[in-house]
Design brief:
It is built from 9 helices and 5 strands, in the order ααβαβαβαααααββ. By secondary structure, it is α/β, with parallel strands linked by helices. A 5-stranded mixed sheet has the order 2-1-3-4-5. The protein binds zinc ion (ZN).
Length: 216
């Protein structure tokens, strides 16, 4: 059997499983979505967002890209973020990286792979910002793991710097931003950091909004 046909067969079996539990499963699902979480994860096939978090369809709004990047010029990610915050009104945005990330590993190397180097370029900046700590680690494996963690932390702060998050916080929306790292070897997620609503950000990134009272 051709490999892709396995997926279509599995889909039919999955539909049957769901219908066996609830006859109206798909009717209810087609109604609307009200997820409480936006997941920004790596495209890596070993980190399926719903499966590792035990969530069902309807619970996670998902954006994935290589090495879970939050880039201020990425209209795809920014559109997902705006929709999640302003329309779906999620209360949690989760950036989830993973140990052994090929994207982060590549950013640590000097190999030229074309376009992907440009995408991963920002991780080199994260390395430079933490060069002293990273260069002090004894081997490449530990450097990679630490850079995976630092990369997640950096993306969390970048989210806090976006206009969407700043506006939500200033408007009193209880939006939390989480930085997690998934361990491929154990299946466990390590909770790295959480920014509560209104966490102060670096002054230069602060925005004032005309439609909100603010401090100005
Ligand atoms: Zn990855």
């Amino acid at each position: 059997m051709e490999s892709y046909k396995k997926l279509l067969l599995a889909n039919k079996a999955w539909v049957q499983d769901k219908l066996n539990v609830r006859e109206d499963y798909f009717l209810r699902m087609a109604d609307d979505q009200k997820p409480d979480f936006l997941w920004i994860g790596c495209s890596d096939s070993r980190v399926p967002a719903e499966e590792v978090t035990g969530t069902e369809p309807g619970e996670l709004f998902v954006h994935r890209n290589i090495a879970n990047q939050v880039l201020h010029t990425d209209f795809n990610m920014l559109s997902v973020l705006q929709y999640a915050i302003e329309v779906l009104k999620v209360n949690h945005v989760i950036v989830c990286g993973h140990y052994g990330c090929g994207g982060v590993r590549n950013a640590m190397s000097h190999k030229h792979l074309g376009l992907i180097n440009k995408w991963l370029r920002n991780i080199k900046d994260v390395y430079r910002m933490h060069q002293h700590e990273l260069d002090g680690l004894p081997d490449t494996a530990r450097k990679l793991s630490r850079l995976v963690e630092l990369n997640v932390q950096e993306q969390v702060w970048k989210l806090a710097e976006t206009s969407f998050v700043q506006h939500a916080w200033q408007a009193g929306h209880p939006l939390h931003i989480h930085g997690w790292v998934y361990d491929l070897q154990t299946g466990l997620i390590k909770d790295q950091l959480m920014l509560k609503p209104g966490t102060p950000i670096e002054d230069i990134y602060k925005l004032e909004f005309d439609d909100l009272p603010g401090e100005h």
